[in-house]
Structures are given as C-alpha cells and as structure tokens.
Design goal:
- The chain is built from 5 helices and 2 strands, in the order H-H-H-H-E-E-H.
- Strand 1 and strand 2 form a beta hairpin.
- It is globular, with a radius of gyration of 18 Å.
- 67% of the residues lie in helices and 3% in strands.
Length: 153
C-alpha cells in the first residue's frame, strides 16, 4: 500500500474510534470516565497529524500520529487494569469548568453531574470492555501510521 493510503486508513481509524466514543456517549448515554477522556486525546492528535500528513509529505507527522494512537493504547492498558482491579485508578474525578460560576451554580453543577467511575465496566462485548477493545484498535492504528512513515512516497 502507498503512504497516502496507509495514512488515510490510520486517520479514518482514529476518527472512527472518536465517533464511536461520541456515539456511545451522546446516543447511548454511556458517559465517559476520566480515563476514557484521556484515551481520546491521543486520537485527536493522530487525526490532526494524519490530516496534515495527507497534504504535507513530512514523515514526522506520521510518527506523531503513531505516538498519539499508541498513547491511547497505553492508557487503555492502564484503564483495563483499573477496571479489572489489578491496580488503583485516578483518585480524582473529572468535571466541567467552574471559572465564572456562582456558588449556587457550582453546587447545581456538582449535584447534577453524573458520577462515572473508572473501575466500573458499563458495557462489554464478548467479555471485553471498551478499554480492552481500544487497546487493540489503537495499536492497529499506530502500526498503520508506522507503516505509512516507513513506506516509500
């Protein structure tokens, strides 16, 4: 496969994972925990690097995409360990911005915010959580970015 094809596949793969996560969140009502959000950040970087790499032939962009997808896979490994009780997860929760809120508005935000724990598995398929599936999917995307970076133009 050509570098451009591999780059397109990897970029679309990251975009598909983000769209899937947003679908589970906004359509399925499965709100993400802190570690779920962390897993998304690498894919945002991979998408940005991949889109630019489709127009600018700089291999460093492909390595950035690989690092982004690879970091998502690594965080998913950590999240899996938290879900399975192998180690402790974050000790703080994620929340919305509180910058210009009054005391009453802040109280209302806290009281109405859903509590999403990182150590609970809200959805499984074949005994695998979304974090488990993200380990594999993100690793495959990282490999596609690496193959693109090593491919001849």
């Amino acid at each position: 496969m050509t570098r451009k094809t591999l780059t397109l596949l990897a970029t679309l793969g990251s975009a598909a994972l983000i769209l899937g996560a947003l679908g589970f969140q906004y359509i399925g009502g499965l709100y993400p925990c802190k570690l779920c959000y962390w897993q998304r950040y690498g894919h945002f970087a991979a998408i940005a690097a991949g889109v630019v790499a489709l127009f600018v032939p700089a291999r460093v962009l492909l390595w950035i995409g690989a690092a982004g997808a690879g970091s998502s896979s690594g965080i998913a490994v950590y999240h899996t360990g938290v879900e399975r009780g192998w180690w402790e997860g974050p000790t703080t929760c994620s929340g919305g911005p509180v910058g210009n809120l009054s005391t009453d508005e802040l109280f209302d935000q806290i009281m109405n915010a859903p509590v999403i724990r990182c150590d609970e598995i809200p959805w499984e398929m074949f005994g695998l959580s979304m974090a488990n599936l993200n380990i594999v999917a993100s690793a495959v995307i990282a490999v596609l970015f690496i193959l693109a970076a090593r491919a001849k133009a």
